[in-house]
Design goal:
Elements lengths: L5 H5 L6 H34 L8 H36 L6 H6 L1 E5 L7 H16 L3 H4 L10 H6 L1 E5 L1
Helix pairs in contact: 2-3, 3-5
């Protein structure tokens, strides 16, 4: 594991709310593009079944297949976004770069409280802890602009910091 020197630990510069928000926008674009590419084949099948383009299917059966296809597509979309998001954030933040593409763009890395690289497990905990902030009207994210170490709720739960390199 990579460790920051004692001198660097004393000089942490924390990434504040607006920088982190910019990184989030970049990561959202990346994940949205990736998710769209993964989902397009499913979407094509769903459109075909939803509009009953197979002439050999009776009207009622076409409707049933269309509704089933739409439900299946929603489940696939949720699964792809959840799994793709989790793997993107957890792998990137626990890698040597210690950052997603968004965090790289703003010059930030994710560390533990001592400035060390985080494990895949800690990055996973950090990712899924974001759901708590999602359920609390995003208050957990706003904490990044209010706390001394600029930690959002998921950082506090996972024991992580977002610092500028």
């Amino acid at each position: 594991m990579e460790t920051l020197s004692e001198e660097n630990k004393k000089q942490f510069r924390y990434a504040g709310f607006w920088l982190r928000f910019l990184a989030y926008l970049i990561d959202s674009f990346v994940l949205g593009t990736l998710s769209t590419l993964l989902i397009l084949p499913f979407f094509g099948v769903i459109v075909l079944s939803a509009f009953g383009l197979d002439q050999g299917i009776q009207q009622d059966m076409g409707t049933i297949l269309g509704v089933t296809g739409i439900i299946a597509s929603v489940l696939v979309i949720i699964t792809v976004k959840l799994v793709a998001g989790w793997l993107y954030f957890a792998i990137m933040q626990s890698s040597k770069t210690q950052a997603t593409l968004g965090k790289m763009a703003i010059g930030a890395i994710v560390t533990d409280l001592e400035g060390n690289r985080i494990t895949f497990g800690r990055a996973t905990a950090r990712y899924f802890s974001k759901m708590i902030s999602d359920m609390t009207a995003y208050i957990g994210y706003i904490l990044a602009g209010l706390t001394e170490k600029k930690q959002a709720l998921h950082d506090m739960i996972a024991g992580t910091l977002v610092i500028l390199k």
